[in-house]
Amino acid sequence: MDGVNAGFASDAVADSLPRVVQSQPGAVLLVRVTDGVVLTANPTAEQLAPGVQLPCAVDDWSRAAGLQAADGSDLDDPTSGMAASPLSRIAAGQPVQGERVTAQRSSDMSDSREDLWVVGVPFDQEETFEPLLGLALVVLLPLRESEQIRDVQESAERLHSRAVVASDLSFAISDPNIEDDPLVWVNPAFEKTTGYQRGEVLGHNCRFLQGPDTDRAAVQRIREALGRGETVTELLLNYRKDGTAFWNEVVISPVRDADGHVTHHVGVQSDVTLRVQAEAERDAALAVARDARRRLEFMSTVTDALSNVLDPDEAQDLLPALVVPEFAEWAFATMLDSTGRTRHIRAAHASPERKDDAQRFQDLHARGLSEQSVSMRVLRGDVGPTLIQDVDEVWLRRGTREGETADLLRRLGLGSAIVVPLRARGAITGSLTLLSGPDRPPFGEEDLHTATDLGARAGVALENARLYAQQRRQSETLQRSLLTPPTGAPGLDVATRYWPAAEAAQVGGDWYDAFTVPDGSTFLVIGDVMGHDVSAAAAMGQLRTMVRSVAYDRSAGPAEVLRRIDVLIEGLGVTTLATGIVLQVERSDPSVDGRRIRWCTAGHLPPVLADPDGTVRLLEGDGIVLGLGTYLEARSEHEAHLPVGSTLLLYTDGLVERRDQSMEDRLHELRRTVVELGQTPLETFCDEVASRLLPTGSDDDVAIAAVRVLPD
User: Fold this and answer.
1) Is it the case that residue 461 has pLDDT exceeding 50?
2) Is 20:144 a contact under the CB 8 Å cutoff?
3) In sequence order, what E strands does 257-329 have?
4) How far is CA 19 from CA 98, 293, 496, in A?
5) Residues in contact with 128: Cβ distance below 8 Å, sequence separation at least 6, in sequence order
6) Which of 39, 177, 317, 584 has the most beta carbons within 10 angstroms of its beta carbon?
């Protein structure tokens, strides 16, 4: 084989062997070639053939280790396809370039066999230190991946008899029985890897490979392990003869004779520089990925926190605190009003000791920063996101009107700064200024990108909070404009309440009404139009007006009122469905203690009646919802008596409906609450009912109408 092909094949093995060895210690034998006797072995070889007494014949050792050919046949089986066992050939003085065998690891708990790669190197006069003459080195290296094993074998078949020994997998033998444990043999791969010739290294300890950046702790671990007679594996930064550094993965095994004395140290070395560099690049890439993921998680956390706050002022207060100390030492947010004037400033600092300074900076911000400060220029849109890597005294003088503001900035800490606009719907609504402080690394371009993205997200979140508040105010204003306060009723205390849904634009169809008609009786009405939009609110306004008009003009009873509403809905083509209760409290009768009431229900939840003695009950009623037609069912009316001091509560389903509780449980909780509140003043009574049953608000509108009979 010519030199080019031989070199190519050698490179193929060099590419494969270090990968399949995987830094595992191999079994090492020293065999006398004159009679094929194993003289010494390392601990791994002793584990492969437990109980074998050295010296012994190499074939006996092979059988004790349970070595088999790659196809599963015994090595001494003539049908195995081998002229002889590779160990027998090595013992006969023949080099073995690399053959696959398997071994039974009888010292392991598992019965599975292990793939091994056999390399045999007989020592001859030309290249051997005298004490090793007549011996052969046998190394059985563990393999792991069958695909890689095949690649190695295919490559090895193209090598001449010394190809494996000449590959990048280098071997070295030292003699610990000679002072300073000098090298007594190295193979050509050692020379190729290190740049040292055999004559330059034999008789010397291998510390000549160490250099200024070699890990001394690793060297000490090797020394201590060999002192204990143990196999050791380390990754060292070594140096070639020309001074270039390389990463050397070295496995050193002590080799013992029959009496257990260490006769030699055998080192298997691999130049794994490319692997280490690849791992370093991988680690760097992973670090970048981790940093990117951390930044995304940070931005997501800030955005989520802002999005969960529905009050715009509270969200603006929260923003600086969300970026400190995770991203900056301190920060402040500046918000503009619709005219472009500063209307809201909040600052947060990582150190509690600087809280008062941050508060004072908020107070001075508008008049303390000059028009040429970066914060003000970003707010005006003169510049975009800006990174200042060193906020020095020049920047300080340019950006402030000196005096107390400059002193505050010095105390709060300068370092580097980033200023980014907060944008929403294409307009700048504010800015976020971040400062690293003097004790943190300065901000860089990646930090600027992160802050810019954060500013865009925060701007949208803050604008959403503002729009939410605006929509909520509009919704509540619209809803309340359709509801009027109850009119006065002699001898009765009447209170009403309305709370809009927690969701901003959820204009609902809940309504209440309380009014006195010409005959002196008082009507209480509660209703809920199905739906949560402007159409529901409009339908609610229509129905409320209808009920009030029918009850007032005709002085009709509750059942007649709802019957007439059914007729009007059908006749006018009003396409809506609604639940409701019309309850009439008759005028005072001196001959009767308290008041008589009549009510009619249209698919609504029952009112709660609490007597002065603490008795509480539900005023049940039947009747279909409004809007289903006049022909389905006649409206029925019910009667009851209200003693003096009793309290009657009408409500919509938003007060009691909950996804995580049954309606029965919620109604029981409502009755218990009414009893506990007893004779609490009625206005307070209504507020307490809502706060106890809805401590965190409601996803639906809530309307309440309550009446209490007063003594004459």
Assistant:
1) yes
2) yes
3) 262-271
4) 15, 32, 82
5) 185
6) 584
